[in-house]
Amino acid sequence: MGRRDGGSAANGSGAGASGAGPGAAMLRRSLWLCLCLCSCPARGLRIHEYLYFQVLSPGDIRYIFTATPAKDFGGVFNTRYDQIHLVPADPPEACGELNNGVFIQDQIALVERGRKRPSSKIWAVTSLKTDAERGCSFLSKTRVIQEHGGRAVIIADNAYDNDSFYIEMIQDSTRRTADIPALFLLGRDGYMIRRSLEQHGLPWAVISIPVNVTSIPTYEMMQPPWTFW
Length: 229
What we know:
This protein is an alpha/beta fold. Helices cover 24% and strands 23% of the residues. The chain is built from six helices and ten strands, in the order βαββββαβαααβββαβ. The strands form two sheets. Strands 3-4-9-7-6-5-10 form a seven-stranded mixed beta barrel. It has a two-stranded antiparallel sheet with strand order 1-8. The longest helix has 17 residues, at 22-38. Mean pLDDT is 79; it is low at 1-5, 12-20, 22-28, 30-47 and 118-133.
C-alpha cells in the first residue's frame, strides 16, 4: 500500500500478513531463497530488488542479511567492499548533525527509521503519518549520511518485531537528490545488529557488501536464525 510518507509496505514474499505462522514463514523464506538462487543476474549483486551483505564481526551475528534498495533515489554499489565498517548513527534517526559523524566518513551508516513502533504488521496497514511527523524522510536521512562522508546508508525499520515486511523507500516532495546507495533493512535485523554491538561494547560492525549469494552453496547460506521462527 503506497503512502505519502516516503515509503510503502511490501511483504518480502509478495504475500499478505494475515495467517502467516512460523511454518508458513519458514516455507516462504525457503521458496524465496530457491527462487533467488535460480534467477540471479550475471553480476550477482541484486536478485530482483534484493541486495545482500554479510556481517563479519561480531561473530555472534555473522550472518547474511537481506536489504532492499531505495526505489527512486540514491546510488548503486559499483564497488564491492570486502571489509567496511557498519556504524550505527548517533542519534539513531540521523535527521541532523551526527555526534559520531567522524566515524561514518568513508564507511556505511546504520540508521533507524523514526520512532519505535510496537507492531510492524499493524503499523504497516494503518499508519498514515508523514515522515515529518516521525522525524524526517528516508531521503533526508540519506542526505545526512552523504554530507558526513558516508559511502552508503542502511535504514532499519523502527518496528523491532518486523522480520518480513520490506518498505519501499521513495522520493519525498522536496525535489532533492542523493548519490550514495540507500538500503532498507528489516527491523528485527537492525535491532539484533545494534544489540550485539551494545553487548560487545563495539562502535561498529565489520561487513562485506554486496555479497554474491550465487557463489555460496545453499547449505552454507548463514541467514539470521530469527527469520525462520
